[in-house]
Amino acid sequence: MAEPNAFDVGEHAAFNTQLAAKIPGKATCVEAWPRDEARGSRVLVGLADGTLLVVAPTGGVAISDVSNHGSQHGPRLQHADSETGSALGGGTAVPNTSSNSSTSGGGGMLAAAAAAVNGLAASTGLTGAAGMSTAASGGDSGMSGSMPTIAELPWRVQRAFKTFGGGRTLLQLQLSVPRSLLLSLCDQGVSVHRLPAFQLTCQATSTRYGKCFAWQEDRAMLCCVVKRRVHLLHYDGKDFLDLRDLAVAHSPLRMLWLGGRVLLAFQTGYALLNIESGDQTQLATMARGTPPAAVALASGEVVVALEGHSQIFSQDGKPTKRIMTWTAQPTVFIFSQPLLAALLPTRIEVRSLRVASKGRVLQAAAAAGLLGASTCSLPGGATFAVSSSQLWRLTAVPLLQQAEQLAAVGCVEEALDLCSLIEEPEQAQGRKALEDGLHVQLGHQLFASGAYEEAMVHFGTCRSANPVILLRLFPSLAPPQLLHPIENLFPEYKQTGDVKEPEGDAYRGALNMLLPYLLSWRTRLAAVANPTPASPPPASHQGADSTGAISAASATQQDAHGSDREPSSPSHQQEQLQREQQQGAQQQSTQQQQDKPLQAEGKGCGVGGPDLQALTSQQRQSLEVLLDTAVLQAMLALSDTGHLLRFVQRDNLIDLQAGRAALEAAGRYSELVALFRVRGCHDQALDLLHLLSQSPDQLPVPPSGAATDLVGLPGVWAAVKYMMAMGPSHLDLIKQHARWVLEADGEAGVDMFAQMEPPLAPRAALPIVSAHAPHLAVAYLEAALQAGAAPHAEFDTPLAVRYLQVVVPQPGEGEVQQRQQGLPPEVALERLKDLILASKHVNADAVLRLIPPGELLEVRALLLERYHRHTQILRIYLDELRRPELAEAYCDRVYARRAAAVARNQRRVAAAEVVPGASTNSGGATLSNGRLDTLSDTGSDGEADPGEIYLQLVQVYLNPSDASKQKQPDGGSVKGSEPGQDDAASRTADLARMLSHKHDRVDAGHALRLIPDGVPLAVMVPFLAAALQGGAEAARGAAIVRSLQRAANLAARTDLITRRQRSFVVTEERACGACFKRIGTSAVVASPDGRQLQHYSCYKRGPQAFELAPITPYT
Q1: Using CA atoms, how far apart are residues 10 and 132, in angstroms rounded to an integer?
Q2: Does the predicted TM-score (pTM) go above 0.85?
Q3: What is the pLDDT of residue 744?
Q4: String of b and e for 1008-1032 (b: at least 16 CB within 10 Å)?
Q5: For 381, which of 54, 376, 761, 813 could close a Cys bridge (C-beta 3.0–4.6 Å)?
Q6: What is the DSSP letter of 56?
Q7: Cβ contacts of 289 within 8 Å, gap of 6 or more
């Protein structure tokens, strides 16, 4: 009984069976003899009485009388296919039913696989078959129910050699096609006959009573078993030479060459014999009584039959994991890449070596009574099976026809297996079309059964599958208004059967498998719309190469039955699919014209689609809209992992109406904002952000996903980033929505205007901020100036004015309005002073006009500093503010500016080489009668002496203004003193302290002349001490400088004298190093070492290799 996974096709035949000829006797072995395509093939049949029959087709061949051995000659044989394997035993044989069958019949049966290997695929179509017809069985009745007469049979016995075996049973036949030899085995041993005359060439006497032999074509080696010894012989073209004989423990029943070893098959197992050393390696064991069978594969491996199954071993005897189970014990194996056939007692079974582990029967045909088989290697040849008295010819049904029959009865997987084995070029187009239909049909079946991943693999493998067919499985993803415009492009849209859309976890699992396919189609459509020279042209259909991409992407998806894993990023899937598809795009483009719909009987399975490049731009756009909308719907149905947000943030053609409805129904407002942005609906996007941030309760559906994080201030910042990306080109929208942003979060609004790229002009942004949030105008200007968006020359003065407005309340403003300014007055005052000091662009007149009289004296003084009104500024600091430190700091600033100007003037004078004696006075103070008569109070700081400013400070100290005299110092007056005396004493003390600190910058003599005589000496002691100490240090420094200068002068004079004392002896023969003329009494220039002399004129005219002063030589 067959296995549950084995099947018989029934009336859908894989082989056409035909009774070829009657055998006049009892057949023991058979061998197909290929001659040439003109004459066809012959079949050699050995009988139990030693007769050799030559069976040939009746057409064009005369039937000769039964002749004796070697009576005729014929043409030489053609070479057989070298790619096929050779069966165990070297020939095809059937068991001997004579009295000595127990000793020699086993070898004959195993030899039945010899010629069957040579061309099984070409003659029977085993390389592509998936089913085999059943036939009547029962002994010699054969494989057909009706028995024709001998005259009606297409094959007849052409010759018969009665004495071929010397009256002994022929046990084994083996053809050596390259050498045109026929090897046969009987009790007399192995004989060699030359073809086509069947002339006996030689006979190996050492092989008498042999049971089986194995022939190695490459080395002309013969291995034969005689009792318990293995004889090795070499054929030299005339006779056999005995090489050696090796002893074995048991008598083998089968033999097979494996490279340099011989496989021995015993009744209890298999062993490998090393012909060089004689060592045996146990391969496998089995129960006694199990018939052995083995065959070598093209890869060098070997298949051996064990108890109910077979296993593949490597050439060195190591077992592999490739095991095949058969319905009965095999007696003979026949190998033809990639198939393996086995003759069983009641049937023939064929399996594919590619799926050996599955154990599926690719072909199964009832065949009782067949004892052996052999195949002709000629194109269009057939397989010949022999029973005890009949010869049957099996011709293969075309594999494409078999696949169509299987598809018609619903055996889709088996039909696909058949299609994968079709290799004929003339059937390539039909195979591809049929495979496409089968993949789609099987994909629908798997989808209906819940195997979504396997279904998508088949859809991806189909070259002509299209997204419309897939979206038909998911009606919820394809809105009718989008599907209708492209239905005519895919006429097969309604030809496939209806499949119920899954629900729940099954629905999500199916979507996980669908997403990679839809994303791959998006990539292909984008490649067609925007072709690049570096990428191959996209194909119109998705080929088999995309299967790997679909499988790889599907492997990262969530399990189809509720797994928590989510699909990988759509962007990552899209890039991965694009890389996989580009590898096969070139091959697909050459096949796209060959892919046509194919209608199978009973059910249409054609799924052809239009060429993407043949579509118009409008048709492609309609397809892209459908795909993008379906992708959105699919991602929306899955768990939120951020993939949908990234998808809608990229360029897409999602239908805005359908996408908005779906996203709003799910509460995915973040994704809806991104969709609005990509599609250019900025007003709707900002309105949605306003509603989501400030009034989420008014939304029709509560926010979900990423939108839940945008309630409140995060939504404001999202709107800020949105408007920053919009740029100045959407100024009207920015004005419209800036109000609620500034009111909700002023800091975010200021950052928006200050950091916008490209930057928004401050003259456009400042009115917006001033109108909606006046208290933030200062913050905006500071940020814009710091970022470089606003020029200092234009906006430093407005910033100073706004600082001043914060410090000095405007008429009618109360404390509440002052707090709304957002900046404390004391902070604004400090920033105002820093701005006036640091910026040269502040308009002093404009600011001074805004300062009320008598207020902000320090700010007024800083502004007057720009006009060099030193006396007025110093009086403000000393008389009105009573801040000596400020007056001293002001003098330090003026001194630094003037000192820098003097240094610049000195450098300029030195560079211009001023003529000595010319006036270089740049202005400054003049003395008259020992006192400073005039001090510069206006003009540039570079026109006065740097220390003059401190002398002006001394004058202000000593000559207070009338307003200052009327003011009393803090702390009251000393008892018994007159009003103003304490103030004068304090000012004198401050003056003395200032002079002591700045003694190095002030001319002490000038300062002492300015001080009145009534000032106590004790007050001026610190100044005098510091001045005297400074003078002493200056004197010491000057003495040191003078000494250094004198030393330098002395060294220079010494060097001059030394150089002037140099002398050179110039003879009459001494020549110039430049012109090579005699020097004579001319002026010369000498090198430092004195070795080279040149005329002074030559030295000046030529390249100056050294620079020396000319000298006058003497003789």
Answers
A1: 8
A2: no
A3: 85
A4: eebbeeebeeeebebbbebbeebee
A5: 376
A6: E
A7: 267
Give the closest residue to 984 by CA, choosing from 967, 996, 1007: 967
> What pLDDT sits at residue 375?
65
What percent of the chain is predicted at pLDDT more than 70? Answer: 71
Tokens for 370, please give them: 């067949």
Identify each DSSP E strand in 23-154 by its residue range.
27-36, 40-47, 52-57, 92-93
Phi, psi angle pair for 18, to nearest 5°? -150, 130
Concatenate the DSSP letters of all residues of 313-343 into one string: E-TTS-EEEEEEE-SS--SEEEEETTEEEEE
**Could you give the count of Cα atoms lying within 13 Å of 479 in the half-sphere of its Cβ?**
20
- Helix H or strand E encompassing 162: none
| Mean of pLDDT values over 210-214 | 91
User: Chain-wide mean pLDDT for the chain?
Assistant: 74
Phi, psi of 836 (to 5 degrees): -65, -40
Residue 185 has a pLDDT of: 92
- Is the pLDDT at 90 greater than 80? The verdict is no
For the cut 70, the answer to whether the pLDDT of residue 564 exceeds it is: no
Listed residue (854, 808, 849) closest to 832, CA to CA: 808
The residue ranges of DSSP E strands in 149-293, in sequence order, are: 155-161, 172-176, 181-186, 189-194, 199-204, 212-216, 221-226, 229-235, 240-247, 254-258, 261-265, 269-274, 280-285
Contact 415, 19 (CB under 8 A): no
- Cβ atoms within 10 Å, residue 978: 9
Q: Which residue in this structure is represented by tokens 């058979």?
A: 30
The mean pLDDT of 351-368, rounded to a whole number, is: 62
User: Residue type at 1025?
Assistant: A
- The residue among 381, 313, 394 whose CA lies nearest residue 348 is 394
The 3-state DSSP class for residue 963 equals helix
How far apart CA 40 and CA 515 sit, in angstroms, is 57
| 467 vs 281: which has the higher pLDDT | 281
pLDDT for the residue numbered 181: 92
Q: Are 867 and 938 in contact (CB under 8 A)?
A: yes
| 846 contact partners, CB below 8 Å, separation of at least 6 | 797, 801
Q: What is the token pair recorded at 395?
A: 């011709």
The answer to whether residues 807 and 828 touch, using CB atoms and an 8 Å cutoff, is: yes
Radius of gyration (Cα) for the chain, nearest Å? Answer: 56
Q: Measured between alpha carbons, how far is 411 from 262 in angstroms, rounded to an integer?
A: 43
Give me the residues paired with residue 1078 across strands. Answer: 1071
Region label for 139, one of left (φ > 0), alpha (ψ between -120 and 50) or beta (otherwise): left
- Distance CA(610)–CA(615), nearest Å, equals 7
Q: Buried b / exposed e across 660-673, counting CB within 10 Å, b at 16+?
A: bebbeebbbbbbbb
Select from 273, 187, 185 the least CA-distant residue to 229. 273
Helices (H) and strands (E) in the chain, counts: 34, 35
Residue 868 gets the label, from left (phi > 0), alpha (psi -120 to 50) or beta, of: left
Tokens representing 367 are 């065949």
Q: Find all residues with CB under 8 Å of 773, minimum gap 6, and list them.
A: 742, 743, 746, 749
DSSP code for 532: -
How far apart (Å, rounded) are the C-alpha atoms in residues 405 and 390? 30
Sequence-distant (6+) residues with CB within 8 A of 241 are 233, 234, 235
